[in-house]
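ingest -> validate -> predict -> emit
validate: passed (alphabet ok, no gaps, 540 aa)
predict: started
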Amino acid sequence: MRFNETVYKWGQNRHDSIKGMTTAEIGQVQRPTLRLSGFFDDLYSISDEGLPVFKMFIGGRWVECLKGATFPVDTPIDDSVFAYAQKGDERDAELAVAAARESRPQIRAIAAIDRIEMFHDTASIIERHLEDFVNVLMLEAGKTRSDARGEITAVVERMRMTMEDVSKVSGEYKPGDWSADTMGKIAIVLREPVGTVGAIGPFNYPLYIPAAKIIPALLSGNTVVVKPSSDTPLSQLLLAKALEEAGVPPGVLNVVTGPGKIGSTIAGHEDVGLISFTGSTEVGREIAKIAANKRLHLELGGKAYAIVLDDADLELAANRCVMGSVRNAGQRCDAVSAILVVESVADKFVAKVLEEVDKIKFGDPRNEGVTVGPLINKAAAERVNALVRDAVEKGAKLLRGGRYRGSYHEPTVLDMVPLDARIIWEETFGPVVTIARVKDENEALSIASKSRYGLDSCVFTNDFYRMWRIAKTLQVGAVTINDFPRHGVGYFPFGGVKDSGIGREGIGYSIEEMMVLKTIVLNLEPAQLGKVKRTRPRHR
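emit:
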């Protein structure tokens, strides 16, 4: 059979279905409409066409950008425009950084315990307005209701776990008499904020990932300038409103929406001390070039290989590999992006994978029970499908799915994927279960070691020594045993090596990245408080 573009797109027949969604049903999807409670009235005005036009948050005020321009925010549910956001530029970014710089004394003047309480208050505000946050995430990111609620719950939990960060915010006393060079002196080593943190977030978790940067930044006494993704700019504005209501001082938190050049302005600004960026490896490299002489935290692309050995619990492995591949429509940097299964158990494993995939409910994310919705936009669906086509053309077997329309890409299963297929090496970021068969664990390790990425991986085995050998050999930031990788609220540290980034995020780890050491040396000799160096006796 010749595979071409038509094989992978839904036809025009109204009965041409894809996991319960017919072409006619997709065409009749109720137009998405954003409705928010009165709590968020400050954030937007209403356009002549009846759509909300959102403002930015700079210096404690909800403002329009200087040039008065806006850009449309569309929803992947049906690719329609449901709101507008401010199209800020470099001047707006500079105003935000200036506001952040000037407000540094205000955040540092707040007692640390009060900052913790401020986040607890914010968590309660978010919970009171849960449906507002759910609706925004579903519309701007195409998330299912369960995924949206899960992301919001993670933000709330992260805020309520801020006390866990405190253990890393401590000083140190160092007596100088352990060295002849510092005799008569002592030192106090303090941790202080870097000043202003630039937080640049992605589209796939538009509420949680920037929040996971904002929380440790403010907790450690920094001010913040946030640049959310232009695909998903609204959830950060809602978060800013919740933090404002909880008492964050004016100028301490600023949110600037608009094109990518805003991120470049923030990254290169002399008054920004640290850049925390989550996104693609290619953009991360550009950020690193611009942010010369700054602290950097970069969480970039990933290619998480799942290694399934011949002694694995195949039912568990199939369930977790499928979940890890399609969760959030596969748009996760820690998603299972390729499965390397030992040949002797491959047939049984693939059969169980198909059973799991057949349980997936795919469609309009607003519908009850839907577990996989659209990708972020049409271009993303086309890119994922290009990877699928390339694999099939090179010999992979298409066992499920493979089609797309608009922003929707069917949950797809590819088996016997050859090593020259792009999908073995490139980040998929779509709901594709990619299976390659290997002779043994050595071949699996050989394949994984050639990847340019090094964020996550996982292995399924019941042999401790094999697990330990593989975990020690894999060149990644984290290895998960008998489950799929998931960063969650960051209770365990995460971050990458190779082309997957620099630094570590997580509760108690992000905050270390956002503080600098200051050493205060005291000379005690004038007051004769220092230790006295003994006179060494002469040896006869």
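Residues 73 and 83 are 5 Å apart (CA to CA).
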